[in-house]
Write a structure and sequence with these properties.
single chain; 6% helix; Porin; 16-stranded antiparallel barrel; two-stranded antiparallel sheet; mainly beta
Length: 419
């Protein structure tokens, strides 16, 4: 099995940083004095009190930050639609920033080895849906992330004492649509598996072609995006531009009323997101509440409450989803996490044969888990953990899943930079 080589480079960067002069300044905060910990995925915001696990060092005028996460896990989903596999789920990001004129330029590259360590068919996850494999919709599996998760440039420039302009240009990136993507939410950091509402909430975090402009103060941001609405194809290592253009748009308002909270609401129009049904378009809208605070000397508590919905254009059909997730790092060593989910999915999402594609089912899941840090070496924290989940399906799906409450579980090793 292939590991994420980019994440292994964290240890090398840590050693390089340790050899630099002790009086070397750490990277400066953002424009308007905003803390670096506020940066979420794409242009989204986290609470300022969010933990930051990263390696920082300097290269001339540039401030460099390298961070990421990797899980090696055994995933076992029960029932007729279940499966079991050993996979590695990971991402690694390098961000380089410097002052340019009166503003600040940030260049970001984020990669994942999942095209090889997960594979095109994805990993087992009961009731999950979205994207395709071998020309058919994926169901009860989570698709892998692409090799290129983000290639982007961000330029922020103050235009008044408490007002700044932001421009985000990304050949691969995330429009201003949805909450902070789940791989980057502190509330989901200890859970290796994706939410069931991923394609109702934050699936556009890998988009091939994005331009976002925004205005922000120290406590609020209003932004708009123009982007390619098509989801990634089955080839997870190429650039998905063939025959595509910037055909979709979105807007998002985010407010951080204090260091512990971040509130956001969004709307987007996605033209032809699914290659298997290119005539279908949808409206996506929702809202999120993110919370983070320290616990004692070394702990951290982070929670997210998210609502997201897809309204199918011309079908008169709106499919809602809701999620509550939390991670409680008790003492820097022991972590508890959990997730409560509800999604309304169509028969075509779940590949239910013999019924009209537009028939809907209300499904959900409850999952809980525990992780323990067992070692720290070379700037890398090593943890062991496990999670269990109970899914909930209506009586009409009981025969497909073997139960109205099918179960699944996973055990894992987790690698992250030390906080």
């Amino acid at each position: 099995m292939r590991f994420c080589a980019a994440l292994a480079a964290l240890a090398l960067c840590r050693r390089a940083a340790a050899q630099m002069p002790m009086n070397m300044p750490m990277p400066a905060g953002g424009v308007l004095g905003l803390p670096e910990s506020r940066t979420g995925s794409g242009t989204s915001w986290l609470p300022d009190a969010s933990p930051m696990h990263a390696v920082h060092y300097r290269a001339g005028a540039w401030s460099l930050m390298l961070h990421g996460s990797a899980f090696v896990l055994y995933d076992d989903q029960d029932g007729p639609r279940g499966d079991d596999r050993v996979v590695a789920i990971d991402w690694a990001m390098l961000a380089a920033s410097r002052s340019v004129g009166s503003g600040r330029l940030v260049l970001r590259t984020m990669l994942s080895s999942e095209p090889w360590t997960v594979g095109a068919r994805g990993y087992p996850l009961l009731l999950q849906s979205g994207e395709s494999y071998a020309g058919a919709p994926l169901h009860d599996r989570q698709h892998p992330h692409d090799l290129f998760v983000e290639l982007a440039a961000v330029y922020d420039r103050p235009v008044a004492r408490d007002l700044a302009l932001s421009l985000y240009v990304a050949p691969v990136g995330e429009p201003a649509l949805g909450p902070v993507a789940f791989p980057h939410r502190p509330s989901a950091a200890a859970d290796p598996l994706a939410p069931l509402g991923h394609h109702w909430q934050d699936a556009t975090h890998i988009t091939y072609g994005v331009i976002t402009a925004g205005l922000f103060t120290r406590s609020a941001k209003l932004e708009a995006s123009w982007f390619n609405g098509r989801e990634p194809d089955e080839d997870r290592t190429d650039f998905d531009y063939a025959g595509r253009r910037l055909d979709s748009y979105a807007a998002r308002l985010t407010v951080n009323p204090s260091s512990h909270w971040s509130l956001a609401t969004w709307y987007g129009y996605l033209a032809s997101p699914e290659a298997l049904d290119p005539t279908e378009a949808l409206h996506r809208f929702g809202a999120s509440v993110l919370f983070s605070r320290t616990l004692g000397a070394h702990g951290q508590w982070s929670t997210a409450v998210i609502f997201g919905a897809n309204a199918i254009v011309g079908a008169g059909q709106t499919l809602p989803s809701a999620l509550v997730e939390t991670t409680v790092d008790l003492d820097g060593v022991n972590t508890l996490f959990g997730r409560l989910e509800y999604v309304r999915k169509r028969a075509e999402d779940l590949a239910v044969a013999g019924v009209p594609a537009a028939v809907t089912y209300d499904v959900g899941a409850v999952s809980v888990g525990y992780a323990r840090q067992v070692a720290r070496t070379g700037g890398i924290a090593v943890g062991l953990g496990g999670r269990g989940a109970v899914s909930f399906v209506p009586a009409s799906l009981e025969a497909l899943y073997g139960s109205r409450t099918p179960v699944g579980g996973a055990v894992f090793v987790r690698l992250t930079p030390s906080r």
